[in-house]
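Hello forum,

I keep getting stuck at the same step: I have a sequence, I want structure tokens, and every attempt I make locally crashes halfway through. Rather than fight my setup again tonight, could one of you with a working pipeline run this one for me? It's a single chain of 553 residues.
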Amino acid sequence: MFVFGRLFYVQVIWGEDLQKKAIDQWTREIPVIAARGKITDVNGIVLAGNADTYTVFVRKRAVENTEELCRGLSEILDMDYNYVYSRINGTVSSEITIKKQVTKDKITKLLERGYQGVYYSRDNSRVYPYNDLLAPVMGFTSTDGKGQSGLELYYDKYLSGIDGEILYETDIVGVEIDGGKATYIPATDGLNLKLTIDYEIQSLCETAMEEAMEIHKAKSAEMLVLDPQTGEIRAMCVKPSFNLNDIPRDDLTSLFALGRNGLVCDIYEPGSTFKVLTAAANIEEYLKGNPHAFSPEHIFSSARYRYIDGQKVKCWSTHENGKHAALNLSGALNNSCNPIFVDIAMSLGKETMYDYIEAFNYGTVTGIDFGGEAQGMVLPESAVQNVDLARIAFGQTIAVTGLQLAAATAAAVNGGIYYTPRLVSEIYDGSGVIAQTFRPEQKGRVISEEASSILSSMLESVVKDGSGKQAYIEGYRVAGKTGTAQKYENGVIAAGKYVSSFVGYFPANDPQYLALVIIDEPEGQYYGSTVAAPFAKSVFERIIDIKGIPPAE
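Reply #2:
Ran it on my machine without issues. Output:
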């Protein structure tokens, strides 16, 4: 009975495990690496692809002359002889990886020598045709072809595919049997990504931000372009960056800094660009009949100062000689007068202002398809004092990401709808079959169409007659808002350090392109009106030319 019981255990219970061990002893596997999916722009231009490279393996028990093989491998693969020798003789495993990402011409040379015990398989060698274009957004892969950052990491499960293998019949010591069968299990290549990015617009932004870095000797320069009607991102540029085909893997500190997408992952005090929200809140509340809101025609106090809880808030202008002494809301935006926005916030009150801050998605992530998004920094409503609310009204005591500000401004001027920003529009296979399509996603209405239209007219005036004049394009309805914010270090104002910005869009009556420019720590001039706005203008002019957009009628 014991014998029968043991036989049953070996055949049934232990049988599957023994079968696997037998197969492992009498076969050898060579992996067939799945080709990583391509990444293209919205028009199909390849931004990330693959080169034909291979991995070289050695099955040491099948090697006839180790010294001769090591000399040949070191010579053809440009490797140290002693390293190759130690890999083959000092490794316990019977299947030894010698080198990855070997070019086809070197494989051909090895094949010509006819070495026994040497095998080859296709691997991933990621290639980025445009080097540093879109680098912090695209991200990069490991030497094993796995996504490590950016979109390469976020969509890695789609891009990676499923590896296959080739099974060779061998004898007990691993030597391939003459006439033995080879079983081929094909790889399933990764899926492809079609981005919302437009290569032509991205290239314009890359050039513009390189110029900004050079002209203003800035610490960094960033630019984002999106479609306000859908939330689709057409360009996202962060400088300085790095060459994706020459990744500084041996300097992790530099790689982390250069590979960081500051528009999504870093926060800053926006300064006057945030006044778009305060103006939008006032206009919407006025249209709703809120008695604490000001009409667009209301003339605010001409005093240069406001005193809140004993603290003085002043306008950048001296107000001498009657300069913008009496302004309505449109004039306040034109001249970027801080005290008037303080008046609005203090009149509307903390609860109402925070309702709009929340509706415009400040203090939380936008939901973009990108890892590591920062949520910004908004003081808890319960902790906000009057002086805090006063400063929030003109973009201080609040920190946002560039993406948050761009998406919120788009919602304010596109008719009042907040769209979740997106970088990928489609996922599809090698045959062109679409696996998934991402449609514009509305998060909700932030203000009415009427309020949005009134606000946009005021922001058009900023570019035509106010602080945004350097973004004006003759014959085109450009609108926007400038911003200049002091920087803080260790809780105090850093002398001489500013963030200069401009958010603008066109056409003002039907926004199709919205751009945000952020120049960090420019030398010399630092106002957003003179530092950031001109670069938005240059990109808009090139978009008009490339896309053949006619002037406004």
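The chain has 20 helices and 21 strands. If your local run keeps crashing, start a new thread with the error log.
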